[in-house]
Amino acid sequence: MSGIGDDEVKEPRFRVPKRFRPLMWTLAVLSVCCLGAVVSIVQLLSDQSNDEDGTVTLAGCGSDVVIDPDAEFPKIGPYGSEQIKNAAIIIKVGQDLGIPVRGWIVAVATAMQESGLTNHGHLGDRNDHDSLGLFQQRPSTGWGTPEQVTDPVYASTKFYEKLQTIENWESLPLTVAAQRVQISAFPDAYAKHEPLATQIVDTLTGGGSRVSAVDTDLGTCAQPGDLSAAGWMAPVRAPIWSGFQTPERPTHHGVDLGAERGTPVVAASSGTVITAECNASLYGEPYSCDVDGSPEVAGCGWYVNILHAGDYLTRYCHFQYAPQVKEGDVVQAGQLLGYVGTSGRSSGPHLHFETHLNGDRSSAGAVDPVAFMNQMGAPLGL
């Protein structure tokens, strides 16, 4: 339905400026064996990326976690067996309390920031006031006695109890939800841990991040339009009209989603808007994005780029009107970005949607959005 080529967005191959990246962190992955199940870590569409970033490929959407204190837990990223055991305890407490799966990821990421998943006692001169345990909870502020807050089960329970008091915490950006529990002096610090926390939960549960964010049970994958436990959702619910880099269109670096004109387009995950503009041109001259485009027009029309935790980038093209967000805005998953149209190089209303790795806005960073969104538990299509 569209004549989009690689001139759609002429982006140089470079990483996003540092001013837009305070919350971002590159996802590190390793092959691991956990709880008797081998989890394969593969490079996501390796022929599309020269870097080593990847995501976990798992068969299902979660399985029961059985915590055995004598089990040998795997090393995941920089975290050793004892630290991953602590993460497993955090997850198991969440299960026992009936906390939605999204909460397990929030809790693990919080403990990664606060303690590096290590159950710290008093650290002497290095101690932050009287902060102790996995979540660095302070007895002096009512979290419990020193003995209690250094018990991983007790500490996890108290974290989840506070999390549940926060309205709509499941749909908040992870760093916001965590900060409202912890009241940290560094409120943006939690976001950088989200990709690896998601990987840890996936590894220990057999793909738990791909269930709905509000589900308390594993086993059923999120459906199109749902927010996944990993914090992702489809930008529109619409059929896929045209695929990624097909033989017929090898320079088509995204997918076309056949939504009707005026359909709301939402952010696929929380992040920072780094582009919100019109880039249409005709025969080298600027062309209005407030009128329908055509295959002869170059550019994406009205479009938005968002940078997410893990240095993932999403692009949304051909809006009917100017975007509802501006450069520098921090958005959350499901927030309105604009409305489906046909501005720029387009032969009919639809959303052109791209996913990129490593913060690379150029075609070199693009990967198949269908595979990427499946990995995030947010399938495209109907």
Summarize the structure.
This protein is 20% helix and 16% strand. With 382 residues, the chain is an alpha+beta fold. A hairpin with a 2-residue loop joins strand 1 (32-34) and strand 2 (37-42).
Please specify the SSE layout and strand pairing.
Blueprint: E1 32-34, E2 37-42, E3 55-57, H1 81-96, H2 101-115, H3 146-149, H4 152-163, H5 174-182, H6 194-205, E4 240-242, E5 255-257, E6 264-266, E7 271-278, E8 281-282, E9 285-286, E10 302-308, E11 312-319, E12 330-331, E13 336-339, E14 351-356, E15 366-367, H7 369-375
Antiparallel strand pairs: 1-2, 2-3, 4-5, 5-14, 6-13, 7-10, 7-12, 8-9, 10-11, 11-14, 14-15
- In percent, how much strand structure appears in the residues? 15-25%
Query: Which structural class should the secondary elements be placed in?
Result: alpha+beta
Question: Major sheet: size, sense and barrel closure?
Answer: 8 strands, antiparallel
CATH topology of the largest domain: Glucose Permease (Domain IIA)
Chain oligomer state: single chain
- Extract low-pLDDT stretches: 1-7, 12-58
